[in-house]
Specification:
Chain A is of the alpha+beta class and about 500 residues long. Helix content of chain A is about 35%, strand content about 20%. Chains A and B meet through helix 8, strand 11, helix 9, helix 11 and helix 17 of A and helix 8, strand 11, helix 9, helix 11 and helix 17 of B.
């Protein structure tokens, strides 16, 4: 399989004396697990975005704060870049290693330090898995709301670094909305606390700034999250439509009625058929689009809302509306959606999962543009949406063994993201920018805005040692990438202007 | 009346050639309203924290973006400090002018630019009053949730600058949770957009960083807020207790039960009596504490929650629990609370309103400490709380015409804030730091943390021209103020350690 790797970042970094660094680490931190042989480094060459790979110079696996501090201080002295990694499930290459950098794996920080049911908080180490927090909170009737699809594997530190979302973030918010406090180490190895246990921390809101900063501002060593009481009941409605435009209209009507579903998802025909073939969820395979709408809360409330949503769906032209009869059918309805990605994996050698957000009203227009792009690049696309909050996940189907298909898929994905920006949306919903979308950041932001990002980065990390080459592009890179900035409202898609 | 004014900030600023600056402003911006005569400047010498006053060098009242840009560019060239002001209702002196600075009054930016009922957003200019947004949204069944007590007068720009809260922020969040996007001008007069119309903006979260930054990072020129559907019903319970400890326990029980009230407020005996004398709300004047608990949402849900809360209140030892019979009584219950400040104003020549947050469990301990401090300073104190989120507003009663009382009140207030920090809370809940709490920031943060704040400030404003002397203290000031840092858990209150 081809590898998409950008030589420029590593190329621009100064040479590192690996044997000397290794020796210094071993001497100063004798208990630290360090991987340095080629075969040991191989498993760490990519994260969940496996099309991008790079073997790290060294991998360190600390299990104490002092070890992380020691690594950071040594790297800072020698000006060696450090890339942090949690569970490695990220989909935008945020934890892609550097050939001239140390990969700092935080997976062994996996302890739940405290659950406080009265304050409804959990204090955990960054390597704790997302789902493990909810499991630990379950005996108290509590759970941690953000639920990325990878929640069984992904770590809370990575969730904070990428500001992860999930099916339920329309109602319950992204990671940033469910955090109280993080403890971090600066690039120099100093301990800092961002946020507080109380409502409003004075000074600048560095907690929110840090959340989603993709390992560029510091290393997370502890996280305090908010817990929520489990809803009494959850019901799911499935609605079929003969056009995506009608489904899109129904979404707008539900939101405008003041109903906030726990989850509101859309799938298009190709995604429906793939999921049905795989899971047998009972989806209507002839439908052009389906909506899944989950309502949760107290019994009476959910009952009323189900009735209102059904009426709205029917008024918007649904050809069929079904409420899951029981918990078994509810779980089955969701299983189809949650397995849409692997289901698509069954009908294509490879797929490339995109992640962008758009204003909900732009949905029909954007889907038409994506169909036109699919024609232009001669690749199929299946559309799966967190449609309630306008977060799209088009899956581009390709075969990496066919020469040029990977590159076409990448270019296609890039155009989808730029399309999102051009309609007033953004190039990421919940997967982050990482290495994947760094060029599209040039479309999203003006040079003044990028300059400000760099100034903020420098306030934390003046030498640019933390995860260089991710998240915030250099102005030089943007200039190379071309004048894609569309803030002035000018569409960079001449061949799509007919829509 | 005495004035508490800190000469050090103005003293440290370089001299400004006022006539030359005035001439340049008049020449370059002929349509700009500029106040420069002593008598015209007087009304602007303070904000809502009137104990601190300073006559600004010049006041400008722009009504176009180009004028604001022109003022900023000119001041930037000449390195003249700029202090932004909205409605001037702030309670921490965030808009206190500088004798060597320009006061930039944004009150004329008072247009509601768009209400989008489908997207549930409002796009407004920064001088629009908080309540005016809800009034404009009312025809669509929507409102803007954060409701500071000053909402009839305070401006949304000021709300963003201070990250304002209100009675309902326990359930609906602070300003930062209800914002989508702000347009700002940098210190150099460049336009920037922070945030986006879509769910998650890539790059660093500068919108959250900017919110609550008290005019130190840029000038707000436009704000897009989220609107919420009005709850179907709202019910209020009033519970009386013979001790604040029992009332505090009831609060913990309600929250632990997973109920999130729309508002949850506590008043102590002095506050109850003052409010009852003024408003005749029907409060039990013999009670040591009352709780007001509002539940809002859909009918059935609210009905169930009222029953559950009543049971919890009774179990916690309430001597009486009353539910407002109708809307008239509900409004009366709230009127007593909302007028608690002016009510206290009737029983004391002056009062000083504090604002700190504490973990809820520390409530009885903190109230005991405040009582001891009241004894030490020989001043009365009435306690009014947004108790659901641990946000206290102790009102210190004093008479500014009695020599030394203002200074005693200020010192008392400072000790209350440091007490909040020592129990794991913070020196502000919703009023901001401003000039008022700048010394207490030294207690809240370590020198590493303050250094990072300054670095972030410098990323936006390298010459420190925007609102200098507020929010983030210099390390020099902290050193002067004394070694008050209590992060290490060491209590700086030897005379209170008996509690």
């Amino acid at each position: 399989m081809n590898i998409l790797y950008d030589e420029r970042v590593d190329g621009a970094l100064p040479a590192v004396d690996k044997p000397a660094l290794l020796q210094a680490l071993q001497a100063q931190l004798p208990d630290l697990d360090i991987l340095h042989a080629e075969e040991d480094l191989k498993p760490y060459e990519c994260d969940g975005l496996s099309a991008y790979r790079c073997t790290p110079m060294l991998v360190v696996l600390p299990h104490t704060l002092a070890q992380v501090q020691g690594v950071l201080k040594l790297c800072f002295e020698r000006k060696v870049p450090v890339v942090a990694r949690g569970a490695g499930t990220g989909l935008s290459g945020g934890a892609l290693p550097l050939a001239k950098g140390v990969l700092l794996v935080m997976a062994r920080f996996n302890k739940i330090l405290a659950i406080d049911p009265a304050a409804r908080t959990a204090r955990v180490q960054p390597g704790v898995r997302n789902l493990a927090i909810s499991q630990a909170a379950a005996p108290f009737g509590l759970y941690y709301a953000p639920d990325p699809s990878s929640q069984i594997a992904c770590s809370i530190g990575g969730n904070v670094a990428e500001n992860a979302g999930g099916v339920h973030c329309l109602k319950y918010g992204l990671t940033v909305h469910n955090l109280l406090k993080v403890e971090i180490l600066t690039v120099e190895g100093e301990c800092l606390t961002l946020g507080a246990d109380s409502l409003d921390a004075p000074g600048f809101d560095l907690l929110a700034l840090f959340t989603g900063s993709e390992g560029m501002l510091g290393i997370i060593t502890e996280v305090t999250v908010k817990l929520l009481p489990k809803p009494q009941v959850a019901k799911v409605l499935l609605a079929a439509f003969d056009s995506v435009a009608k489904a899109g209209r129904a979404v707008g009507d539900i939101i405008a009625a003041g109903i906030i579903p726990g989850g509101l998802e859309m799938m298009d025909n190709l995604a429906i058929r793939a999921a049905e073939d795989f899971i047998h969820a009972g989806y209507p395979v002839a439908a052009e689009a389906i909506l899944l709408c989950e309502l949760d809360g107290v019994e009476a409330d959910v009952h009323d809302d189900c009735d209102r949503v059904r009426t709205l769906l029917e008024q918007a032209g649904a050809t069929e509306v079904r409420q899951a009869r029981d918990e078994v059918e509810r779980v089955k309805f969701w299983a189809g959606r949650k397995n849409a990605f692997p289901a698509v994996g069954r009908i294509s050698a490879d797929y490339y999962c995109m992640d962008g957000t758009i204003p909900r009203r732009e949905l029909p227009h954007v889907l038409q543009c994506i169909a036109a792009l699919a024609h232009k690049y001669d690749l199929r696309v299946a559309n799966v949406f967190h449609v309630g909050d306008g977060n799209m996940h088009p899956l581009i189907l390709f075969d990496a063994n066919q020469p040029g298909e990977l590159e076409r898929a990448e270019a296609f994905g890039g155009e989808i993201l730029e399309l999102c920006v051009s309609v007033g949306g953004s190039i990421t919903g919940e997967h982050g920018v990482g290495r994947e979308k760094i060029n599209q950041m040039c479309a999203q932001f003006s040079s003044d805005e990028l300059t400000l990002f760099h100034a903020v980065k420098a306030a934390f990390d003046p030498h640019g040692l933390l995860n260089p080459g991710k998240n915030i592009p250099t102005l030089h890179r943007c200039a190379e990438f071309g004048a894609l900035h569309v803030h002035a409202g000018q569409l960079p898609f001449p061949d799509l202007e007919r829509f």
